[in-house]
Amino acid sequence: MTAASDIEIARSVPLQPIRDIGERLGVLEDEFEPYGKYLGKIDAPPILERLKDRSNGRYVVVTGITPTPRGEGKTLTTVGLSIALNRTGKGAIGCLRQPSMGPLFGAKGGAAGGGYSQVLPMEAMNLHLTGDTHAVTLAHNLLAAAVDNQFAHGNPFDLDAVSITWPRVVDVNDRALRRMLIGVGGPQNGYPREKRFDSAAESEVMAILGLSGDLSELRRRLAAITIGAARDRRPLTGGDLDVAGAMTVLLKDALLPNLLQTTEHTPMLVHTGPYGNVALGTPSILADVAGLKLADYVVTESAFGAEMGFEKFIDIKCRTTAVFPDAAVMVCTVRALKMHSGGFDVAPGRPLDPHLMEENPGAVEAGAVNLWKQIENVRRFGVPVVVAINRFNSDSNRELSLARELALEGGAAGAEVTDLWQRGGSGGEDLARAVVAAAESRLAEDSGGTPFLYPLDIPIKDKINIVATEMYGADGVFYLPEAERQIRRFTELGLDRLPICMAKTQYSLSDDPSVKGRPRGFQITVREVRACTGAGYLCVIAGEIVTMPGLPSRAAYQQIDLDEHGQIIGLF
Length: 572
Prior knowledge:
The protein is α/β, with parallel strands linked by helices. The chain is about 35% helix and about 20% strand.
């Protein structure tokens, strides 16, 4: 008998009116905005003001080891753990990013969890939801249009066309947009130059939306975006072009977190969608902090391996909120541990090596070096780690038991095998109890706050070196000439006191996606540094990072359609 698909399971669950979910969560009527019967938005700033004297709930961050190209189930774990905590008597809420439709129609498919640990309605979650990403795209491209409009009207700010750094964005994977000529066909069509499109998920506007606490902060950050420089090298911003107000108007509703439900009707806040390899890779600040006032436990996510998502979570997001996690859940799988043994041919864009599905305890043990390094990375911040080993049907009991032993040997406070896909919350109750124990032990220790990886008042290169050596295990950092020039310029402008957002491959601790396990004796190559002055960080590009993904030869969009009843099929 063929197992039911994610979309079939999702449609088998009777949905509850989202207003009822909000009421049980404690959201008042005037703090809730419905988008139909099963979607809604919460007005987070008034909620935070009303509940400012209420103690925060426990804060749990889901992270992971370096993943296989198919992922190891961090979203599944975030959803399933939220459900499991409720089942064990803890009022919990989950926080997720909204999926990008680029990967949805490309190679990855959806990102609403899976099986009996999904966010519902899964079609809305994976597609347009309430239109937040479209608002980000429009606001971003409005600023791009305003930049080019300067040349049509006398260039009043004496903008240097060569200095323009602001691209355009779209929420679809399209490699033909990576480099292009714009403004061709005569002066009436603009200033001819080479430009690029990025994914909407990588837009600085998306990061700004996720880091803003209210509309005034949103507008201030949008006005601070650097778009280029005048010929006298003076930086020019969105505020200089008088476009920040219009951008804020476009993003007014998008600032409000979206409220959905799980397959077991646990509340889920889904808000903003920055990629984790280039941007923050975390849900919005407003979703997390509102959840902490409304629930006993908030389970939020940080993208990819802990050396990327968790580090950015602490050094960028927690610097803004001054709220630190009580525990971390590290997701791993037997197949990923085997991959990190180095004995399998695994690469992005190709099917997984079928030998990963065969029993091989030796490969599990050899690949545990990656798990141990990622546990070490989280514990560097003083946060206890519970390892969640997501079960696949191909895993043997011997391999699963070994993975659990190895996790504990590597310093985890707990380790549990989960069956969240097939059993929903009941398949994660042991994990939930282990997380509660870890969070309470963290509270009992009262360590006085989680230390950051680096202070802000040190040079840019020192920050990069600390991340590269302590998080990745690199011996050092090599800078290409363009990166050297940019670092000197940003230091002259006083931007050296910003935190850094490292951008590198998610498939390795190094900047080479083919290198697995725990590499040693390598350097990180920095080829570019971008000033994201609205988001409030410097984006450091390490290795070869593509900011506009392409589509595979067999893309997910080829199986997505409507059936004879008008229902969506092919989502997974």
